[in-house]
Amino acid sequence: VQLQASGGGLVQAGGSLRLSCAASGLTFSAYTMAWIRQAPGKERDFVGAITRSGGTKYADSVKGRFTISRDNSKGTVNLQMNSLKPEDTAVYYCAAELFGSLSLVPDEYHYWGQGTQVTVSS
């Protein structure tokens, strides 16, 4: 299984970024996909997740600003991030769990990608 995240970068506060994650080696449509982030010196934090059928859940800190979407035909999951804040700075990972239930607990996701750095300057 490979999860390849991309799209990170440096952006000013208030700006936008779109992260993408391409999955291979798994039956993508059977997996709940999540975005999880880790800031320097902090624990991993759940950002949001999307079920096989498109149901979503978000951390309170990103509700109304971030949107997750997926394309089962392409095996991709995206994270549109708007109104970015300096506190959104972190390495963002995509993760997958077979028939997952939108868990907020990062450890419950079995497969992880390599991460992409997002830096928001003030």
Write the layout of secondary structure elements.
Layout lengths: L1 E5 L2 E4 L4 E8 L6 E8 L5 E7 L5 E3 L7 E6 L4 E6 L8 E9 L12 E2 L3 E6 L1
Please, could you describe this protein's structure?
With 122 residues, the chain is an all-beta fold. Helices cover 0% and strands 52% of the residues. The protein has no helices and eleven strands. Strands 2, 4, 5, 6, 9, 10 and 11 form a seven-stranded mixed sheet that branches. Strands 1-3-8-7 form a four-stranded antiparallel sheet, with no helix packed on it. It starts with a strand and ends with a strand. The mean pLDDT is 96.
Helix content: under 10%
Instruction: Please work out how many helical segments DSSP would assign.
Output: 0
Could you name the ranges where pLDDT drops below 50 across 5 or more consecutive residues? Answer: none
Main beta sheet strand tally, sense and closure = 7 strands, mixed
Determine the structural class based on helices, strands and strand pairing.
mainly beta
Number of strands: 11
Q: Which range does the strand content fall in?
A: over 45%
> Can you give the mean pLDDT?
96
Measure the end-to-end span. Answer: 37 Å
Categorize the overall geometry. Answer: globular
Radius of gyration: 13 Å
Question: What's the SSE pattern?
Answer: EEEEEEEEEEE
Throw out a few tags for this protein.
122 residues; 4-stranded antiparallel β-sheet
Outline:
The chain is globular and about 40 Å long. Strands 2, 4, 5, 6, 9, 10 and 11 form a seven-stranded mixed β-sheet that branches. A four-stranded antiparallel β-sheet has the order 1-3-8-7, with no helix packed on it. The protein contains no helices and eleven strands.
